[in-house]
Design brief:
One of its GO terms (cellular component) is plasma membrane. It is a single chain. With about 550 residues, the chain is α/β, with parallel strands linked by helices. The protein has a domain of about 350 residues: 3-Layer(aba) Sandwich (Alkaline Phosphatase, subunit A), CATH 3.40.720. It has a ten-stranded mixed β-sheet with strand order 5-6-4-3-7-1-8-16-2-17, with helices on both faces. Strands 10-13-14 form a three-stranded mixed β-sheet. Helix 15 links the parallel strand 5 and strand 6. About 45% of the residues are buried. The structure holds zinc ion.
Length: about 550
């Protein structure tokens, strides 16, 4: 027998079954603990070339020096780090001061995997977002009254008014079903937000968002509506509402009791304030059908009440707010503000810049404090389109805004709470090497095709298998694109929210209460207690040492 034919036969006879056995071993051992997982690697690796297992090498986020790598291999490094953390914890003292100021940061759709992936995006697994150093952390259960998975509307109602509601409704109890105007207009079904409680005590209030200021999250502060999509009168009539009965959200912001008293309103959504025939500063037309110019109405109210005010529409104006301004309306885009990666940094401010400007207006000497809502609103929208790059970048921007707020406020008298309204379906898969770019590959499927670190359970990133039934695998040049829509298991026009709990982080007065697993609607009650604005919970005003 020819020697070549002999070896070929040997391969077919033995190697192929061994390879199958190894594939099986890999699949079974993936559920076992670390030690057993090594087995197939030990016995089977000779069958595979490295590129089979990691077909496309991942970029490293921050290559470590030889010295750093050696340090992490020692006991001392990890033990010292742990002891330092314990020492920090032992130094922590509970803060029983009354919260003069409260800043509530809401990362829309900021799920736990989003936070973990953003750490890697920001430079490595060991990085922390600004709020991850806060002393107290809890979990929030986000379901709403009629749905297992929340949307931003019922969720905003829960964390801003303290009462859970139905999907798609804002600032009303669950006695109001979607699109029911009659029920929404009944006073007993309407809920006061935490901002309203601050206003009743003569304290300042404001909101900052990267979405339209009439979008679900900010609307939770000032609106009562049976449909979150009724942002303008035109929306009401096109979405089966009665314009004579169902007041639109923009109108409520300018004419409603709570909206009218907001000292700061910063975000996008200018079109909802202008009639169709009016062209705004950037050349876009308004969308209102009732002919009302709500920006002019807002100004008229300030003048009638002798209030100092400013209406602004670009970054320059925001960075040069006059000192004595008590009321600030800033509308920086016709619709939502642009994603940070796509914004014109000359004309559109960052979330961090808006947050700082808002605090300057709210934090007046001799005032009795303020409540500010800051929303990183486009994390959610990026996830809906499975644009993972943008979702993580928006989360990093959100973190910068929190960092700035921490720097310019005082922990003794300012409670800062950071949370999300609901999760998303993006998952973070193993086992990429330490330091790998999170926009990379995690490993091989049993079909011997690579899979990415980030994937979505559903969404527009779904691609069917090819004609041979081969699973879709993105190429490295695809996943480097910021606009790349990450793979999804089930096809959907827009990816859905996730039902998993979201995290709550707190620092400042009474932050030690924001721990454990809580219903989402508990959050504003805790804030009320900390700031002593509640009518339900008794609290004693404590003098703060801070000015
Ligand atoms: Zn959403």
């Amino acid at each position: 027998m020819n020697i070549h034919i002999f070896f070929f036969s040997l391969t077919v006879l033995f190697i192929s079954p061994i390879k199958n056995l190894c594939n099986l071993l890999y699949a079974v051992s993936s559920n076992l603990d670390v030690l057993w997982k090594q087995l197939p690697t030990l016995f089977c690796n000779f069958l595979y070339k490295d590129e089979d297992v990691r077909p496309f090498p991942n970029k490293l986020m921050r290559p470590k020096s030889e010295e750093e790598l050696l340090m992490e291999r020692t006991k001392g490094y990890w033990r010292n780090a742990a002891l330092n953390t314990i020492a920090d914890k032992l130094r922590q003292r509970m803060n029983f001061n009354t919260a003069k100021n409260v800043i509530f940061f809401l990362g829309d759709g900021m799920s736990v995997p989003t936070i973990t992936a953003t750490r890697v995006y920001m430079g490595g697994e060991e990085k922390s977002l600004a709020f991850e150093t806060f002393p107290y952390t809890g979990l929030s259960k986000t379901y709403c009254v009629d749905h297992q998975t929340a949307d931003s509307a019922c969720s905003a109602t829960a964390y801003l008014t303290g009462v859970k509601a139905n999907l798609g409704t804002i600032g009303v109890t669950a006695a109001v079903n979607l699109k029911n105007c009659t029920a929404m207009n009944q006073r007993e079904n309407q809920l006061d937000s935490i901002a309203k409680l601050f206003q009743l005590q003569g304290r300042r209030t404001g909101l900052v968002t990267t979405t339209r200021v009439t979008h679900a999250t900010p609307a939770g502060l000032y609106a009562h509506t049976a449909d979150r999509h009724w942002e303008t009168d035109t929306d009401v009539s096109t979405l089966n509402g009665d314009v004579t009965d169902c007041e639109d959200i923009a109108h409520q912001l300018v004419f409603g009791k709570t909206g009218q008293q907001l000292n700061v309103i910063l975000g996008g959504g200018r079109r909802g304030f202008l009639p169709r025939e009016v062209i705004d500063e950037q050349g876009n037309s308004g969308v209102r059908s009732d002919g009302l110019n709500l920006i002019e109405e807002w100004i008229k109210f300030r003048e009638n009440h002798n209030q100092s005010y400013q209406y602004i529409w670009n970054r320059d104006q925001l960075l040069n707010i006059q000192n004595g301004t008590d009321y600030l309306l800033g509308l920086f885009q016709s619709s939502h503000m642009n994603y940070n990666k796509e914004r014109n940094t000359e004309t559109q401010p960052s979330l961090e810049e808006m947050t700082e400007a808002a605090i300057k207006v709210l934090d007046k000497q001799n005032s009795s404090g303020y409540f500010l809502l800051v929303e990183g609103g486009r994390i959610d929208m990026a996830h809906h389109y499975t644009w993972a790059h943008k979702a993580l970048d928006e989360t990093a921007e959100f973190s910068k805004a929190i960092q700035r707020a921490v720097e310019i406020t005082n922990e003794e008298n300012t409670l800062i709470v950071v949370t999300a309204d609901h999760a998303h379906t993006m998952s973070f898969s193993g086992y990429a090497a330490r330091g790998s770019d999170v926009f990379g590959y995690a490993g091989m499927g049993t079909d011997k095709l690579p899979y990415t670190i980030l994937t979505y359970a559903n969404g527009p990133g779904y691609r069917p298998p090819n004609d041979e039934g081969r699973r879709y695998v993105p190429l490295p040049e695809d996943i480097n694109e910021i606009q790349y829509q990450w793979p999804s298991v089930a096809p959907m026009e827009k990816e859905s929210h996730g039902a998993d709990d979201v995290t709550v982080y707190a620092q400042g007065p009474w932050s030690h209460l924001f721990t454990g697993v809580m219903e989402q609607n508990v959050i504003p009650h805790l804030i009320s207690l900390a700031a002593c604005v509640s009518t339900d919970i008794e609290c004693e005003e404590t003098d703060t040492k801070a000015p």
